[in-house]
Amino acid sequence: MLDLCEEEDLLIRKQVLKDLITVCKKVKTCIPKVADVFSQLMLTADSAELQNINAGFVSLFHIDAKGTLAGLFSQIRGGPEVMRETAIKLLVTRVKDLSPEIATLQFQRALYYEIKRIIRWVSEEEFNTFVDLIMSTKLMKLVGGQQLIMDLLYEAIGVEEMLFEKTHIHCLFTATDHVLSICNSQIPPDKFIVYYFTKVIPAFQELIKLDNYVQQGILKRLCELLVLMKPMNDGDLRQCLDSAMTLAFEILPPIPSESQEIVEKSDDELKMPNFNFSHAECSLFFIHKLGSFLPEYLPSMTGHEEFRSRIQFLNRGASAYERKLREDFKNHQQKKMDLQTVENKQKISSLKIVKNLNTLIRDLFQKPPKYTGTVILSWKPLAKPQLKRPAIAPSYLGHKAIRTGKDREIQRYQPPGGKYSRGGSFGPGSYGSGGRGRGGSRGRGNYRGSGRRF
Do residues 367 and 360 lie in contact, with contact meaning Cβ atoms separated by under 8 Å? Predict the structure, then answer.
């Protein structure tokens, strides 16, 4: 019957499609194979036949969604490039249109495992498609499902080695961005942090050959992962700190040999090397964050004094650069120049970097190092302070009703009028002879004075 799907007569192929659906209803084990054949027929140019095939897929998903999924992925894994692309488009379209009764949690888990089998061998575009598809499922709403997606992303970046190719860099960036959106107190990004420090950072010399966007992209994403990290075991922490220190010594320039000349000259007079302050911010943030979980590492480290000397030298360069930036801003303000230009925005960002460097160096230079300073990464926007809602001054003019919602009013209190109101009779003697008043007799004396018995 499957051979008849290749008949030239359109009517025969149309009847075969109907008969195959009937067979699948009775023998569900045939569904993966039939779904595989249907995906191959999607290359037809006849719109009527294409509509019948789509209707056939809808029927197959209703009969056995997991079996249909298996048939589609067999074509995605082993089919020719054209059929593979068609099968992926069909998969995305059909899965997103499935009702909750069909797209159960078991079905979505099956989809997850099928994607996990192929995620490391897909193109950039396919990687984005599969990750977006799995992120749109119910798994994202469950803690266990989020952990599964984290494992999928970890599998995608290739844990064995770091390949500095365009496809792998794209995969690394996309996976990390999704990890940052998933991480929480129950799902920390520890595995990704260890991967970065053991596979990516040690090859920093290879990163130098790439453009600055890639270098900054890797360093910034690792900083953001560290913001979300939780305590790790000491072995992993030491391994990460060793890698972070190696990177710091590659980024921070050594002090020139004319040490006496350096001491005597001021920061402005001294000819500073070309510091990469943005890279320095990231590398010192690595050490500051990791060291806060293992405070004894830096004091016992070989080369600690050399590290202190380098960050002290960096601090002099950062201070000189900060003064220059502030002088530029002062001149711009005096000349009433626009501070929102691209150049000035970059200078504002540089001021944030210098401020962070001052905080990090102040903590790390101490003996023993302290980790009390708070750093907001320079490329992250500052959190806007929450403004208190202004109090509404009461208005008693006319005793108007307060509207608190649609068609809802709260009436203000109005004192009673007429005979139930005391009106203007407040004050001494307002209650007649029975009132006490100032200097008046007490009630008990009145009774005694009247000669009445108790």
Answer: no
